[in-house]
């Protein structure tokens, strides 16, 4: 494992083999604490520059997810219902996933005299983007006293190291209020696309999170309804705490790993510890997506350079508004974090081969997911997942239900008569068609040399005679009996159709 990790710094094929090895172990529930320790030690031995190269390689298709996304918290207990819904509508228009803090929705509902679930339903009715549910326990929406819901964020403002809440008030719960609406528990999860669980209690943060036994109830129900599962843990001391957090998340079979730094990063070398936490998460994450829900500006920047996919931010009043992107002395309640996080991402990814997710991209994933049906994550081809956790989130959103496509994978299967196939585009649509039809011969072209190479490698490994065409679409059409444009983005489809004769799927 150590040698493979070292090789993956400079070799994408080694990175692919590393991910295949980890995915196999994850699917067989064979990741042990000793494996995690070995990986943490191996990454710990690397320089910060090597960690950044490793994480960036593992974010590339198909080892990880080469999209960078902002997830937005539009809610706060201090908002009116109208303000909250309007924040959600704006977030939806921008195409960002909504991070729904259940306690805040419940507080807003209480002020309006309506049950907590009715507020969640109102969000669902007004947006199409995925809904990410957090602060959710075994009775449903968690409830906290006002000194927590209106916290000014002293721990983030003062900066590390974290020594417990400065006002000694975490993690008080109003359990009787929660139990009053316990009958709503499963209905919340049915409306959500993804659900967060927090494992920091296992890292020694008993005062900061719900018991693991409670998180197990939430995790089991999320899995029952096919929702994506996110595991939140602290950087902590950067070693023992990191290992404990990762092990707890893997034991819960989470799809997304969420790393919290800032005051919860107590390591001597904060930036290397944060980069290491992201890099190790990139190796171990099941669904290919690594996020942060709390990181100072320098951590956000080093995280993006080390393979980070998602930064959770928020509107003014929402605690995520100050938890990401701000620094000690400026991180405080009242900040509207989204503009700052967008600037940080824009500055950091300009020279990276990644895309900042927009509504345009979400629609493309939704169309692709709808076309492929049940042949997406966590389904595999050649030991690699077809898609990632983004696809689970999209599939559980209204956007997925609303988009239109011209054909389904079943239609393609029904019209297939054993022809040699051509794929213009080497990503997951091509993988899904190949998995369903298992053609004897396939020709592949993609504008991205590595995407084409990886797809051909995977298809060859499952017994399909696949051939690279070095980005030459004309070469594919010439050799194949039937050629499909494996994209759901209209501009790309039109560009290809103006150049060659091939069939689009939307």
From TrEMBL:
Alphabetized Pfam families for the sequence: Fibrillarin_2 (PF10113)
InterPro entries documented for this protein: HcgG-like (IPR016760)
UniProt-listed NCBIfam families: monoFe_hyd_HmdC (TIGR03958)
Record-given protein name: Uncharacterized conserved protein UCP019375
Organism: Methanotorris formicicus Mc-S-70
